[in-house]
């Protein structure tokens, strides 16, 4: 029905679609009522709205650029600006900056260091080099938010992972990637 419609029929169908949408029906429900595919209804609606706002994709920003931006943002916040005003100053929306902080533990550390909220105590985040003393003492350590921990057991470095029931299971000798060794988000598990 939808493929070979004449312009007059299409105008009538669009009017009916508009009525159904104005009545609160979803695009899928409108397509069911009209006995047209959902894709066709969506395409026709989009064709009728040429000036609609198109959501922009997030630009690619390297980790070095992100670090520089987050540090500037944190310094502005530390100087007394609100998060949103500081975000405007660096040229990125607050939501995007918060998403970066949530996805990159190293950025969280940089942010907290710049804002002045670092924890230099027993439970703070540390580099792998700093945390080695704790590992040698037999304390279990993990990366912030990871589902694995490492611990020295009988002079062997062992890896433990959380299973579905939140129970630590030994997975054998620990092997660490370069990312793990270079990370600065290691913490002692108390």
What are the salient characteristics of this protein?
alpha+beta; 3-stranded antiparallel sheet; 3 domains; 5 strands; 190 residues; two-stranded antiparallel sheet; single chain; elongated
Architecture overview:
With 190 residues, the protein is α+β, with helices and mostly antiparallel strands. The protein folds into three domains: 42 residues; 53 residues, no CATH class; 61 residues, no CATH class. The chain contains nine helices and five strands; from the N terminus they run ααααααααββββαβ. The chain has a three-stranded antiparallel sheet, with no helix packed on it. A hairpin with a 5-residue loop joins strand 3 and strand 4. The chain is elongated and about 80 Å long. The termini are far apart.
Task: Describe the structure concisely.
By secondary structure, the chain is α+β, with helices and mostly antiparallel strands. The chain has helices at about 5-20, 25-35, 40-50, 65-80, 85-90, 95-105, 105-115, 130-135, 180; strands at about 140-145, 150-155, 155-160, 170-175, 185-190. It has three domains: about 5-50; about 65-115, no CATH class; about 130-190, no CATH class.
Q: Profile the largest sheet.
A: 3 strands, antiparallel
Shape: elongated
Question: Mean pLDDT, rounded to whole units?
Answer: 81
Strand count: 5
If helices are DSSP runs of H or I spanning 4 or more residues, what is the number of helices?
Answer: 9
Name the helix and strand elements from N-terminus to C-terminus, one letter apiece.
HHHHHHHHEEEEHE
Number of domains: 3
Rg from C-alpha positions? 27 Å
Name the poorly predicted regions.
118-122
What share of the residues lie within helices? 40-55%
Lateral arrangement of strands in the main beta sheet: 2-3-4
| Backbone structural class | alpha+beta
- Could you tell me the strand content as a percent range? 5-15%
How far is it from the N-terminal to the C-terminal residue, by CA? 67 Å
């Amino acid at each position: 029905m939808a493929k070979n419609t004449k312009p007059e029929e299409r105008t009538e169908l669009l009017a009916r679609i508009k009525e159904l949408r104005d009545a609160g029906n979803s695009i899928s429900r409108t397509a069911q009522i009209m006995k047209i595919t959902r894709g066709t209804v969506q395409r026709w609606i989009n064709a009728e709205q040429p000036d609609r706002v198109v959501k922009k994709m997030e630009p690619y920003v390297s980790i070095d650029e992100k670090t520089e931006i987050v540090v500037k943002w944190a310094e502005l916040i530390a100087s007394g600006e609100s998060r949103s005003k500081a975000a405007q100053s660096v040229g990125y929306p607050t939501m995007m900056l918060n998403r970066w902080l949530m996805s990159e533990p190293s950025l969280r550390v940089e942010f907290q260091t710049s804002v002045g909220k670092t924890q230099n105590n027993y439970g703070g985040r540390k580099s792998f080099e700093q945390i080695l003393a704790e590992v040698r003492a037999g304390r279990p350590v993990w990366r912030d938010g990871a589902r694995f921990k490492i611990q020295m057991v009988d002079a062997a470095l062992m890896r433990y992972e959380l299973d579905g029931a939140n129970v630590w299971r030994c997975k054998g000798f620990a092997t660490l990637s370069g990312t793990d060794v270079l990370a600065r988000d290691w913490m002692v598990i108390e």
